Amino acid sequence: MFTRSELEIKTLGELKGLCKQYGLKPLGNPSYKTAWIDTLLTFAAIALRQMKSGEGLRRMTFKSYQDLGQALDQMGEPTDQQAALIRATMQAKRLEYPHRYDQETLLNLHKAKMQLEQALLLLNM
Predict the structure, then answer these.
(1) Helix segments in the chain, DSSP class H
(2) Domain extents in the chain
(3) Which tens digits make up the pLDDT trace of 14-71?
(4) C-alpha–C-alpha distance, residues 17 and 44, integer Å
């Protein structure tokens, strides 16, 4: 991400600003440029190593993938009439109360299912 020479020409204030931008704390004494430079040079490798070792944000287990798939299966597919109502709702067509609440629930179920499908696609990388 950064090269040592690229960072060494920056002032202490610029290095602190970069670290603040990424939410990083210096490795060592904060009054030395090297502490900030070392932080900027190593944070990416440390982050990836942590992910691979299961620390912090990590990959899901196979069972978790299966559970998400089961949740999607349980939600089912919209009928032709439900799909038509979802399309109408997305075009700002609204039913009268009290049916509007159920209409919004149907739209929210559809959105949630779409987002779960998108999440599974992203996680399968």
Answers:
(1) 4-8, 12-22, 33-52, 62-75, 80-90, 99-123
(2) 4-52, 62-123
(3) 999 999 999 999 999 999 999 999 999 999 999 999 999 999 998 888 999 899 999 9
(4) 17
